[in-house]
């Protein structure tokens, strides 16, 4: 049981050291990730369209 209490105490101490992001930081990170994913998706869709069009012209 002492191992558990030591683990719990150490976990609580480590959790106190964690710096959690603020609400504006989370919002900013969400927007950045959303924009990057959107642009990459559009880029890959365009590449797929160009490649499929090229392949269909080649194969007739």
Task: Describe the overall structure.
This protein has one domain. The protein is an all-alpha fold and 60 residues long. The protein has two helices and no strands. The protein has helices at 2-17, 23-59. 88% of the residues lie in helices and 0% in strands.
SSE-based structural type: mainly alpha
Strand content: under 5%
Q: Helicity level, as a percent range?
A: over 70%
Number of strands: 0
Runs in which pLDDT lies below 50 for 5 or more consecutive residues are none
- What Rg, in angstroms, do the CA atoms define? 25 Å
DSSP summary: helix tally:
2
The count of domains is 1
Distance between the termini: 74 Å
Biggest β-sheet strands, sense, barrel: none
Q: What best-fitting shape do the alpha-carbon axes yield?
A: elongated
